[in-house]
Amino acid sequence: MIPSSSNTRNTLSILHQVPEGHVGVYWRGGALLKTIPEPGFHLKMPLITQYEPVLVTLQTDLVRDIPCGTKGGMMINFEKIEARLKLL
Known about the structure:
By secondary structure, the protein is mostly beta strands. The chain has one helix spanning about 5-10, and strands spanning about 15-20, 20-30, 30, 40-45, 50-55, 55-70, 75-85. About 10% of the residues lie in helices and about 55% in strands.
């Protein structure tokens, strides 16, 4: 089997770039590493560590008019609540 040029480049390179809007994922010896590099240039050990970029999607969920009760029995209405999620 002849490896593709992009796969060979990924395996043999020391320096790699994580593109904007992505995070990096590393494998060493088939095991997923805990390191998650942000966008930019990074170093890795060639032939030992494999790298793959993963697209990150930002999602904002908005919920309006939320009634909440306090411990003292008072009702409070929140006009809106926004939750921002980083999806991999």
